[in-house]
Amino acid sequence: MDGPGEDASSSVTKNKDACSPLTKGKKKEVKEEEESGLLGLSYKKDENFGEWYSEVVVNGEMIEYYDISGCYILQPWAMSIWEVMQTFFDAEIKKMKIKNCYFPLFESSSGVRQKAKDLNKFAPEEVAWVTKSGDSDLEMPIAIRPTSETVMYPYFSKWIRGHRDLPLRLNQWCNVVRWEFSNPTPFIRKGILPLQPSRRPIERRLYEEFLAVPVIKGEKSEHEKFAGGVYTTTVEAFVPNTGLGVMIMVHGDDKGLVMPPKVASVQVIVIPVPDKDANNQGIFDACAATVKSLEEAGIRAEADYRDNYSPEWKYSHWELKGVPLRIKIGPKDLANNQVRAVQRDNSAQIDDIPMADLTERVKEMLNNIQQNLFDVAKQKRDACIHVVHTWEEFVEALGQKKMILAPWCDEEEVEKDVKARTKGGDMGAAKSLCTPFEQPELPEGTKCFASGKPAKKWTYWGRSY
Predict the structure, then answer these.
(1) How confident is the model over 202-243, as pLDDT tens digits?
(2) Which of 123, 166, 4, 179 is nearest to 75 (CA)?
(3) CATH homologous superfamily of 385-463
(4) CB burial class (10 A; 0-12, 13-18, 19+) of residue 207?
(5) Domain-by-domain residue ranges, the chain?
(6) Looking at the domain 268-371, which fold is it?
(7) Segment 254-307, tens digit of pLDDT
(8) I want to staple 7 with a disulfide (CB 3.0 to 4.6 A). Which of 146, 184, 229, 377 is the partner?
């Protein structure tokens, strides 16, 4: 499986100053509306999705741009998500007796060109090449790993000489480099991740249980299956705004990121709300005690004690970063031995939470946030699925950026014809996404939406944007 990767070009606009903090070390009185301007996003999700996404991943401190186009620095806020998912995935595949290995980063040019031709998966011009050693030209250019199978498969054939050598179950965590010029976007991979049948439930759990993104489980068509495979299973996610399926796009809003608690680096941020006439040291001590009790209960919590930012600025800052739960402690809370909490997913405020009940209440709220994010995403996804029976209905739904479920004759030439008939403009051609394992009833006599031939199955279709 691939780890956090790098793309060779980028369409995302730099916006380093959109989230500039107040000058450190200097106390400044800043009006709330001015602070909102410092931290607010310039674009709304429903009005300009691409620019909104670009702002969110930068201002939310997920990535920083590098001085080589298409390369990004993954900041701790993003890496922590990867670490949570990798830890889960690694443990699960080891239960299945899959062992980790590592293959070289470099491959010979002849090997890459031949395997690219055999796999029909990528073009040699998409590969990054090493041509020099110091000032000397290499006798033969060396490719930087464009995909893992081109390096691994020749050695599989060497190690597997008969049925007694099976099964061979290996996993590799690594980066791949593609020299692509198709407007790559941070955290979005152009292709569909091919899954082995035995591993599909793990992938589904990653999406649904950790990222709170609902997916459809199914099998790829013969035309879309992984090159060289007998068949390819998949899990498909859908974002109503664009048809791309990732956590940031599904849950994020006009305030910024919305992190599912299971993958959030910080699940709870505790913010003191001091007052010039209050026992501020007592408030700070209460915040520290709150963090300690939450951490002892296994909850990832931090406090924001910075004195050069107002509480309102901090609220906006941690909302932008998507922290699931915000706890506020002010003079009245201190006096009553209680706290106030605000949920990031729906902005619900819960007042008067006794300190004695805090850890249990926080666990309950985090579980509710995780489930609510999934439920809301599923409702939106289901509302964008459109069932069609004819070509005219298909074209109309495609123009509305719907995820389409249609009866199909399951013929590769028909799928190629659908691609050819829907290709044009800046949008990608329509293609089959998957044939769901859970098939709706297919009445006898149902015709294929594209060819008019007898339909054999229901299949999801969509377009890449």
Answers:
(1) 888 999 999 999 999 999 998 888 766 788 888 888 766 544
(2) 4
(3) C-terminal domain of ProRS (3.30.110.30)
(4) buried
(5) 100-168, 268-371, 385-463
(6) Rossmann fold (3.40.50)
(7) 999 999 999 999 999 999 999 988 789 999 999 999 999 999 999 999 999 999
(8) 184
Q: What is the pTM of this model?
A: 0.84
53-98 pLDDT, tens digit per residue, is 999 999 999 999 898 877 889 999 999 999 999 999 999 999 999 9
Token pair of 432 as six digits? 């089959």
CA-CA distances (angstroms) from residue 269 to 86, 294, 328, 456?
24, 11, 9, 53
Query: How far is the first Cα of the chain from the last one, in angstroms, to the nearest whole number?
Result: 25
3-state DSSP percent of the chain in helix, strand and coil, to 5 = 35, 20, 40
Question: Same topology for domains 268-371 and 385-463, yes or no?
Answer: no
Alpha-carbon torsion, ordered 351, 356, 362, 365, to 10 deg: -60
Two tokens, residue 78: 């993003």
Query: Which residues is 392 bridged to in the sheet?
Result: none
Collect all residues with Cβ–Cβ distance below 8 Å to 29 and sequence separation of at least 6: 310
